[in-house]
Predict the 3D structure of the following.
Amino acid sequence: MRCVALFLIFSCQMFYAATAHVANDWLAIPLTTLVVIAALKFFRTPGWRAGALLGSTVAAGLLTKAYFLPWALFAGGLVVRLTLTRRATLVAAGAVAIPVAGLAGPWYLRYLLLYGSVSGMQQSVAGIGPAQALGAALDLPWPRALLASARGAVWTGNSSFTSFSSTTVTATLFLTLAGAGAWWWSSRKAPDRRAEWLVAMGCLCFFGALLYANALFYAFTKGGIYTATPWYPQTLAAPLACLLSLGFVRAGIAGRLIGSGLCLASAHLIGATYVVKLIPMYGGYGEGNMKAARLLRWYWQDSSRWKGVLAGTALGDAGFILALTAIVALMGAGICATLCLSLFRREGMQE
């Protein structure tokens, strides 16, 4: 399960686009994972040590990106729930609240005093608040917006926002939804069902914030943009991959077929990202859509020219880039084959 989850995370092109982004998004992805881990620890043993860990990670996240506010609400809801049910003491609750208030509180108070907005987002500073976002949500083309957001979360081409094969991306999204269904069906009899649903609730909380961001962007641009930034959903990569992997292993033959299909799609995506998309894009391919015959001809004819262009645009030796690409493609195929076989082994079925 761990290997499948890691393979799904590291086979996503948007994971690399987000972690290599010139902003704090590279830090937000591991911090989100730490917040989920800290929330699980506090849920299981709600003492002051676990509370201090949860409060510190939430504070670090809030100092990294404003979109950690939904995770702060999620952590706050967890603390209130455990305190009201007397599973957590006031000391443990205070251990969560003090780092958040002491470390991140002054920064967000500054936002409020300077801009009149807790988040400090330019949309909020411009006066676009919940009322305007709600009004925009009523007019927003949600089917198109959700599909575009989902596709953008899978592939955007290093922020070039070029298209990938719609069939491949749609199949990946369909398998992801099927995997989520397999997890939900198998979680009913899971030994740690409440902890798994806690992770799922955190993901749903952030997903709700993404929907709000869609409406906020739509209102701010007066209908020009109806999707949130595509690297935001990458913060859910680790918790979502873990839940999906649990479903693949526990949902019988259907779960294993879905898991194998998603591994195959992921291996194809990461290999084709470099071979079919990024190297031709950075190498000066100028023949329109990527057709197999034309692309092969481009690779073999006048290779010295495109290698020179690639070395200049990618700021690295073309031979080294091609060697790394071959390693990625071969390792992706090999690991994918190993994982697909292991999903159907007797040991894997018993696990």
Summary: The CA atoms of residues 55 and 96 lie 4 Å apart. The two ends are 9 Å apart (CA to CA).
